[in-house]
Amino acid sequence: MERKLADTHTSSDCDIVIGVLALQGAFREHIAHFSKVPGVTALEVRKKEDLEGLDGLVIPGGESTTMALIAERWGMIPELRTFAKGGRPIWGTCAGLIFLADKASGQKEGGQALLGGLDCKVQRNFFGAQINSFESQLPVPKQLEPFQRGPQDYRAMFIRAPAIMETGPSVEVLSEYRLSPEEQAVTEGRESVVVAVRSKQLLATSFHPELTEDSRWHETFAEMVRRHIAGNKATANGRSSSSASLSSMGSQRSGMSRPANMPVYGSQDKL
Questions:
Q1: Where is the region Disordered (predicted)?
Q2: Which of 17, 67, 190, 236 has the most C-beta neighbours closer than 10 Å?
Q3: Could you confirm whether 94 is annotated as catalytic?
Q4: For residues 177 and 127, is the Cβ–Cβ distance under 8 A?
């Protein structure tokens, strides 16, 4: 298909093009969700040239170290950093959250390339290995409410998931996960960890919305992209672009719904 550049859009109802980094991980699932959102075309991004003309980008869940190594080998890290610094919206899920974070702990020896831009510290594999994967129902943040259809909570799937341990003043907390007493003991009494945030044009979730049937997070990101385009258009015409930001909200906290017999990651070592 012929890509449309962001500055050709004229309204919040127009078609937008969202790329999904397709080096490794759950990129097909993201594309399937965006196919349900009217006015959105989703494309696989495998090389730096694929970033041209995109209105937004998703960095999916997967194995963050492997994804980073492939991106470095194919020379994509500088282009991805340029894309991020250019102000276009980016959404990172799970491994994508680690990519966007300014700081990450618990990495493998030698670390990995980070794109940065999200003022937070992430603990890699906070919730444990693959065998420790679990689901939780979390309250719907205000950003998802315009797309509300059904319950007031959403299904969050945590698979080798990171957690956000610290956030800077520019980061808006969207969702928190309430820790069990056993988890609190491992984390020196911390009652909860942040699992979804937004900062300007960056959105990040430590769970996998793409692995559920709920498309509200994808609709929310598409709306972020549309509002970003509309804001740029208004700025170019000398008008205020203050309406480009989504409504703010306080942090949300859920009841602990992790199975009681679930092994607690890090029980031998303090984080």
A1: 232-271
A2: 67
A3: yes
A4: no
